[in-house]
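User: Structure tokens for this complex, please. No commentary.
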Amino acid sequence: MRLLNTDGSRFKRNLLRDRQLYLMLFPCILYYILFYYVPVYGIQIAFKDYQPYVGILQSKWVGLKHFKSFFGSPYAFRIIRNTFLISFYSMIFTFPLTIILALLFNELRCKWFKTAVQTISYLPYFISTVVVAGLVVSFLSPTAGIVNTVLEKMGMEKIYFLIKPEYFRTIFVAMGGWQGIGFGTIVYTSALCSIDNTLYEAAAVDGVSRWKRIIHITLPGIMPTIAVMLIIRMGSLLSVGSESIILLYQPITYETADVISSYVYRNGLVESNYSYAAAVDLFNGIISLVLVVISNMLSKKIGGSGIW
Amino acid sequence: MKRSFGEKVFDCFNVMLMLLTAFVTLYPVWYVCIASLSSGIEVTNGNVIWWIKNFELQAYKQLFANKEIWISYGNTFFYSIAGTMLNMLLTVTGAYALSKKRLMGRKLFMTLILITMWFSPGILPQYITFRNYGLIDTRLGILLCGAVTAFNLILMRTYFESVPDSMEEAAKLDGAADFQVFRMVFLPLSGSALITIALYYFVGRWNAYFWSMILLKDPDKIPLQVHLKKLVVEMTANDSERGNIDYTVTSRETTIYATIVISIIPMLIIYPFIQKFFVKGVMIGAVKG
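Assistant:
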């Protein structure tokens, strides 16, 4: 009893002492409750037949009906496959190129040239998805697009790129690469800065060639960063944002272009099948969560630190 | 240090690769600029490749005459500036409180925030929540979208934690309360971190379109990106149908280029100056991660 009492008074004392800190924390936490935890509570619509006019609570429970109808549909396989493939291709294309670009930056001797190229390479990161998609659409346009103009000038036939399912993934991955590779080098550049310079000096004295220095000093130096980045990337292997997909796909390319998030967007917000879409989204959310947790555990194991 | 022949070849090759990288990065932006200033027919015929052909301001004249564009442009400014202010208010105060190890329940609050990085409730529950709050088609709704990002909050908290405790203790000895310590000691010390986070939010706000597209119906409230999105999607849809060149289309193409130009110009102007803060942000994150 006595113990509880002192604990209680210490609790009160601390609360009183830090009252201004709690006041500062309050808006932030309130925001998360209202805009994150309330929606989390709303996930239950995935197990109900949600009717907007009835409300979340009064809607009827239907158990796993929506999950069953999703996995029973031909779309389940298609969109899971597309999500995985787009994400996977983008990883094997973007990931090595980012590292190579960072290494090449590092090998530049002329300081101002290096800064200039680096700065230029960050540019696409500051351009919005809508604009980038707009660029892609107009560049590939069969009538006025510059790509087709060039193809035609080289004596080849024009191609309607965006209505051919076989081109979609390539286009999408290239677009993501254009946008992200330059900015992605920053992580490696900062890792490269932390490599001990005396190692290079010693190697130079010993007459080790530049190529060997890259292989034996530079690469091992950034290996931990590479490993952590790779693992983090694996964590998002089943999340491809609908934001850029819905700007480029068309019904005719759904076969290769439709991913989980775009399917959810179309079913839920365009066609208003709230509960069904929420169920598909929940499935995706859980898979992503599992992947992130595993990847975080792995990165803690190898690097001693995860992404928090 | 003398360079061997092989190294010279490598250096040369490397510089060429870099020039190629710069070209691939810049050319699309360059193309949009020159195409928006060329005549529509030349653009459609594929004659515009390196430089402006038949200079004309037709596309910009159309743009200036279009009230919708300017309304959405104004909206983008409003959402980006007011939104960033709201972001900063919530993030910086929250991060400051969470940077204090003595705060009871700190672990619990941190966990509540970290969870948001790992799991998303999905767009439908979020949309329904916004609707239940009556935030559909309101400017307030847009401002509240993503008002705190866990990533930036943690970045800011990490920064506050790096300020030595002795600074706070000294101020406390002088009788300063937490608000005062925050305002007089920590904020002035955090200039570059504050700018970094504000810029992350600002660029994010400027370029955002998804939730604005979902939440807003009223054309007077949409930001530029949503307007642009309509043009782009229209263009995609038309491409699959259209066969022959049609001249109403050509002028529309240059109009889209001109719209793209005015939407990226503010970023093009400020990004060389702000990019170093983004680099710093990634590095703070990398040190932690």
